[in-house]
Write a structure and sequence with these properties.
This protein has 558 residues and is mainly alpha-helical. It has helices at 3-21, 34-38, 40-50, 58-70, 73-78, 80-92, 112-125, 136-169, 173-176, 188-200, 208-213, 215-223, 242-246, 269-273, 298-316, 345-351, 357-361, 397-401, 412-415, 431-435, 441-445, 476-480, 504-510, 521-525, 530-545, and strands at residues 229-233, 279-283, 367-369, 382-384, 422-425, 451-454, 463-466, 489-492. A hairpin with an 8-residue loop joins β6 and β7.
Length: 558
């Protein structure tokens, strides 16, 4: 096995392991978002937009420093996007090597990544971050977390279902009852199409994304023009051209000696294929470099910066752009419920890199990425889809896995006081209010006793009423409402509590909010697998027929 693969493959498997571990309960022995923090575009872009130094993202600055010594070693060995592109190239590309692979002949699209970087840099300086759209770590994390992970669980679930009778026949009765929960994610089709396009571009050039489009690669390319360790060719070179044809990024010139180190990913292929052993990588000074290694005209560079500024200006003057401070508030969607611990909206959008870690790890699958509910600047940020599932009060995973601190890492106790919204009864859809029929489900399911059933004039049965000071917006009432389609109980951002610093518990006390979650509620209603829930329902139905118990939310008609 080649030297690059010996390092690249284990690191890629480690990336997949960390992504798998980003689930409840979260392991304490490892930082599951470590790879995301290595992306220099994430580090520099997020800090520029947030106008502050974020200690957790210092790893990205370290990668830039490593580039000064070892060149673009991050692209060749560590980046999981690079590994995925290599795998796709191996499958899609013609195995025959091309003689037209020199640095001079393959420069048609090379400047694009520097122009993209210039546009992103100007946009970030103006306060609007688009780097999440081009960050290789954000893209590939979204792909594996929101596309491949649910597909894997789906096929696993089908396999377990098919093998269930066989396992039971073989005496493995316990295994025959195993069920795999399949998560569902919005925007995953778009993410899949986006990554598919990136991988298919490999049919045009090997590592097309890395050499032509990746702005993180552009950052490392600027820092790697004269690395300490560099490619060197001795006089033993016979000019056979094997090194040139084997180079995945066309970093070698047609003379086989000159090297564009800003494009070299230190994969060592040229050294390994050289029959004369004339190629080596060692510390050195001088050497032969292309006359115009980074060929970007001043006019194109200025045009890219102006484009980034124009896009930012148009976005920031859009009606749905969220402003802060004393600026007029935007027209916010009533369904935009942020996860508990999310920073105030402008700061949240500045820091969120749309990686999908919180969405993948969400215990109840309630977190989903949004399209334009938060404006174009809030594209792909997470929200709580309460109709799909509620927010489990004992889970604080979203804040723990967030690599940039867009969601604060709150303790479970502190998280209960991070009010994310308030439930509202839509009386025109409510069974009790509109049809005058008994229904106590939202009252029974509320973990905080924020909904009570009361007698009101004109009704012969009790109707649900929300105590806003007890409701923290968890959404279980909306999720469990038996009304088909849109729920009769909806959670809205009204009264949400979002702090950039300080204690949620103390602030809730100042505002007179009282949150006392009932112990054990989540064990019965939340953590059960679908099969277990169905089994429990049948058991309760049997008990109700015997007169010993009733399903939650139902009483005997007098």
């Amino acid at each position: 096995m080649r030297f690059q693969k010996r390092i690249q493959i284990p690191l890629f498997l480690f990336f997949l392991l960390l992504l798998w571990l980003a689930s409840f309960p979260l392991p304490t022995w490892v930082d599951v978002g470590w790879f995301l923090k290595l992306d220099p575009l994430v580090s520099l872009g997020t800090m520029a937009v947030a106008r502050s130094f974020i200690p957790g993202l210092a790893w990205g600055l370290a990668v830039v420093g490593i580039g000064l010594v070892l060149g673009r070693v991050f692209c060749g060995y560590i980046c999981p996007m690079g590994t995925t592109v290599d795998l796709a190239d191996r499958i899609l590309r013609d195995k025959r090597t091309s003689k037209r692979n020199s640095f001079e002949e393959m420069d048609r699209f090379r400047s694009l990544k520097y122009l993209i970087l210039a546009g992103l840099a100007v946009s970030a300086l103006l306060g609007l971050g688009w780097h999440f759209f081009f960050s290789p770590l954000s893209i590939i994390t979204r792909f594996y977390a929101l596309v491949l992970y649910p597909v894997f669980t789906l096929f696993t679930s089908i396999l377990v279902t098919v093998l269930g009778p066989l396992l039971s026949a073989l005496g493995f009765d316990t295994l025959s009852f195993v069920q795999v929960r399949v998560p569902y994610f919005s925007t995953n089709l778009f993410v899949a199409a986006m990554v598919a396009i990136i991988l298919l571009l490999g049919m045009v050039q090997s590592r097309f994304w890395c050499r032509n489009l990746c702005p993180a690669g552009a950052i490392l390319g600027l820092c790697s023009r004269r690395p300490l360790f560099r490619r060197s060719v001795s006089e033993a070179c016979t000019g056979c051209g094997r090194c040139l044809r084997a180079c995945p990024t066309s970093a070698i010139s047609s003379d086989y000696v000159t090297t564009a180190h800003s494009e070299c990913i230190m994969c060592l292929k040229c050294q390994e294929v050289c029959p004369e052993k004339a190629v080596s990588f060692r510390p050195g000074k001088g050497g032969s470099f292309p006359s115009r290694e980074i060929d970007v005209s001043r006019r194109k560079f200025i045009a890219a910066g102006v484009t980034g500024a124009a896009l930012s200006a148009v976005s920031m003057t859009n009606l749905h752009h969220l402003h802060g401070g004393l600026d007029p508030r935007a027209l916010r969607s009533s369904t935009l419920i942020r996860p508990p611990g999310a920073l105030p909206e402008p700061m949240f959008q500045d820091r969120c890199i749309r990686c999908g870690e919180c969405v993948k790890g969400c215990l109840t699958n309630t977190l989903q990425l949004v399209w334009l509910e938060a404006g174009i600047s809030g594209l792909w940020t997470p929200k709580i889809a309460a109709r799909l599932a509620g927010c489990e009060q004992n889970c604080n995973l979203c804040g723990q896995v967030c690599p940039t601190g867009a969601i604060r890492p709150l303790s479970p106790d502190e998280k209960q006081y991070a009010k994310i919204g308030t439930a509202r009864i839509v009386s025109s859809r409510c069974i009790a209010w509109e049809q005058n029929k008994r229904c106590l489900i939202c009252d029974e399911i509320c973990p905080y006793n924020a909904i009570s059933s009361q007698f009101v004039a004109g009704h012969t049965v009790t109707v649900p009423v929300v105590d806003e000071n007890k409701c923290n917006g968890c959404g279980y009432c909306e999720n469990k409402c038996p009304v088909e389609g849109e729920s009769a109980v909806v959670v809205e951002p009204l009264g949400e509590l979002r702090l950039a610093s300080g204690s949620y518990k103390e602030k809730a006390g100042e505002l007179g909010l009282v949150f006392h979650a009932r112990d054990g509620v989540e064990d019965h209603f939340i953590l059960n697998e679908p099969g277990a829930e169905e089994s429990a329902g049948k058991s309760e139905e049997k008990q109700s027929m015997e007169g010993t118990a009733l399903p939650p939310g139902f009483t005997v008609e007098q």
